Amino acid sequence: MASVLERSEDPEKGPPPAANDGDGYRPSADEPFMNPRQLEYFRDKLLGWKDAIHRESAGTLSQLQSEPLREADLTDRASSETDWSIELRTRDRQRKLISKIDAALRRIEDGEYGYCEVTGEPISLGRLEARPIATMTVEAQERHERNEKVSREE
Question: Which of 38, 69, 111, 152 lies deepest, with the highest CB count within 10 Å?
């Protein structure tokens, strides 16, 4: 069981390196924003992330089907069930993450990727590198979160 949990990635940590990292390319502020090479870089990064999530999910499913969940000892059984519960919650978060990745891929196709959905300003390359599903600039995201917090408190 531990092997499944050790493999699990926190979906909030971000994607694995892009598949095209082998050529050493990294988007730069010195080139036109969201030029074809940058778009291809982020498309590859998103597709790689999605593929990694699918592979992990398949591994979880395979292990779930092959390993018995019935331990003889009640403490071992409780521990095993807790581990699987955590694993399945992680997979659920990743399922939701896949829909965000798909939305980012659609934005690439529509020519909207990399621009804030609130202000229309470019999202920094550093932010997109760390979180390629980002839809807002840091400033717009902070405003959104502050407004959300205020509305929850009311």
Answer: 38
Structure token pair of residue 54:
């699918």
Strand, coil or helix: 120: coil
Q: Residue 99 has which token pair?
A: 């829909």
Is the separation of the CB atoms in 16 and 49 below 8 Å? yes
Angle at 42 between CA 37 and CA 43, to 5 degrees: 95
The tokens of 46 are what? 């998103």
Task: Evaluate if pTM is beyond 0.85.
Answer: no
CA 14 vs CA 2, 52, 98, 130: distances in Å = 22, 11, 12, 6
